[in-house]
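Encode chain A's predicted structure.
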Amino acid sequence: MNYTPIARLPFLIQARRSDRWSGESHLIQGKVLRSLLRRAAGTETGRRYGFADILENSNTYEEFTDRIPATDYEAIREDVMRMTEGEPDVLWPGVCRNYAQSSGTSGGRSKYIPVTRDSLHRCHYKGASDCVAHYLRANPKSRIFSGKALVLGGSFSSELKPSDPRVRVGDLSATLISRINPLADRFRVPDMRTALMPDWQDKLPALVKASMHADITNISGVPSWFLTVIKEVMHARGVSRISDAWPNLEVFFHGGISFEPYRAIYSSLTDPAKMHFVETYNASEGFFAVQNDLSDPAMLLLIDNDIFYEFIDISDPSQTIVSIRDVRAGHVYELLITSSNGLWRYHLGDTVRVESTSPVKIRVAGRTKTFINAFGEELMEENAERAIAAACLENGCSIRNYTASPVFATGNTKGRHQWLVEWLHAPSDTGAFAAALDRELRQLNSDYDAKRSHTIFLDPPEIISLPAGTFDRWLRSVGTGKLGGQRKIPRLSNTREISDAILAMTGNRYR
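Encoded structure for chain A:
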């Protein structure tokens, strides 16, 4: 039975609330901030910074920024650890028993992000619902609820072992799946036991078995990991396209990493007459944005889901922090968030490019710490993703995963960028691929182009092809629970730590 016509009306009503965001974004965000301050006024953090006094001030935002410093995870790590042991009212009211373990592609030790009841229902689930609502609005012919959703989730495998057995730590998706509304669960595969399996060597065949004969209409997950599942389903069904196994597949809700290096391969495996690709911006810390126009790659910033946003223009030497009222289109900003998971003026570690301000629409530009600037080239993740996608298209190839780092100059050699690549379909000539990548990077990034000019300061990029499964092996090696559908390979690094470790696993070394 197709339940889409029944579900469409409430979802459309939900999507239409964003129509008034064009002229009221700062007012809506102001209400969000006051709500967060009011609910947390009695917490340890609320008393420390005087949330009650902030609320009495007519200039709430100015008082908020004066009293509360911007912070990062290390500043609150001890508070979070106390919370995992059952201490109430620390960063957010009550006791929090769910935590999302985040490897934090730019950091060292794992982060444990509180997933409070408020953040779960007012942010994560609401954001997921917004995603479906905007898709239904953009695609009136959708039959998404005529079949099942295949959601690629993680597990509760974790490095942290709290003394309270009621505390659960793991991938955010594990918490979302374990707490899902039973009605929504009827439209999803696999069953919860399979979805939460920690070992991917057992989980992958179980996912294939659960989904290969199901009527899958929509899939959700990280593109690199989902491609592995799709290829296994195709192999099991003996088909050359996933749409031949799932003929009613119509949408992929994707996020976590850039989709551009994977777009061509997904397009070749699906039915172009009905398939849509919808980008989401969902992280352990919150559900931030969703693509609401299928013809526009920019995502609508969700401004009423228990998150208050602040922005730092990365091109501004003063590093002035502004609210949504003062963002400008075309600028790249680092995000700070204040939210109902107890994060207050928190450096998210992500950068976004504001594409429009009425309403605010964004594209993810990359991580604040995933870049290469060893030679003054200022290569950002956004540049790398776009150049990789263009080089793949030109050379008829596709990439499963990659990472890049500098090879530093010596007395006899210039510096260069070294790209470690695991291919889905390798190019016939990696030299031609390297040349195309170099050309695209020079077009996209003037600093890189200047350093590459006449090969005076920087040699052409080097491509090293890795055996299949190398990145999976590295993820397993760097910590318990690292291998899984929510784990991401750091794309760019300004040091050789990651690249050298991966090369060592393959018997290669820094050259």
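The two ends are 60 Å apart (CA to CA).
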